[in-house]
Design goal:
The chain has about 325 residues and is of the alpha+beta class. The protein has helices spanning about 5-20, 160-165, 170-175, 275-295, 320-330, and strands at about 20-25, 35-40, 40-50, 50-55, 70, 75-80, 85, 90-95, 115, 120-125, 145, 190-195, 200-210, 220-230, 235-240, 245-250, 260-265.
Length: about 325
Amino acid sequence: MSEEPSAEAIAGYYRGLAAFWHPVAKTNWGEGPAGAELLGRRLVLARLEGEVACFPDLCRHFGSALSIGEVLEGRHLRCAYHGWTYDREGRVVDIPARRDSPIPREAKVARYQAREEYGLVWVCLADQPAAPLPRFPEFADPAFRKTEAWLPPPWAPSAPRIVMGSLDDTHFAWVHPGLLGDREHPEPPEHQVAREDHELVARYTILQPANASIGGEGALERVDYRNHATPTAIRLVKSGPAGTYVIFHAVCPLDWNRSQVFLITARDFDIAPGRDRHYLEFEERILGQDRRVVESQRPWLLPPLASRLMLYVRPADLPLIAFQRWLEELGVPHL
């Protein structure tokens, strides 16, 4: 039996996530057009008339990539092949080879919804989003010091598997011993799980090494977690003796088996800008440990709960059970 999902399952995965907002780039990508990927599609981003526009990365003429073109006077996107030029709605407004003739009505490309938030460009491929952007209220809170978004190399698993890896707290002792967990205390916490405002929220309290957010390996201390998950993003809010530390993971599903993590941290303590690198280096270390495990998981797409291909156990796996049940209700398909 092949490890890869069927073509029908992959198409269903694309359809199920198309109506959600996904990050595709940082807002400071540069002046010209930029290529991006989302759910098996090539996209182009361009800032036209002060707004981010997103189109298929495919000229309507001969299918060359618009991302290798140029932006004209901040208003139009011109293809590098024959100069076909598009406005911010995706309509062709100039065909240099036939300026004496009307432009065909079919000379246009689709425009996808795009917006900027949290220093990222977000895109929704559907006409009507199924939910608002993932919430990150600390980003606008002046009490918090925010790091710039960090992008590790793309991961191999599907986006929901990466979110589940962060939602799963019982792996801390085994994958992150001495950093986030202690193998002398592998017992699961008591979880409180609920759906709130288009999110799955899991609350619990655990013992973690002191100063875990910057790699300290001191005595254990109590940390309260509040995790806010969407199908492809999670915001982990950790409250401990030092203050509140927030990890925002927004995952772009590049394809069914490739995903790009966008990571931003926020903290209301130790707020000197020079300390940012310590927190990002720690998160890079944690993600490196997670990646080895999550990329090994099979099948690629989540099997249905009813199949029992993954044997969840209570109470440890309660947040994961609730998350996958929610995905299935949202129509995000499985294997």
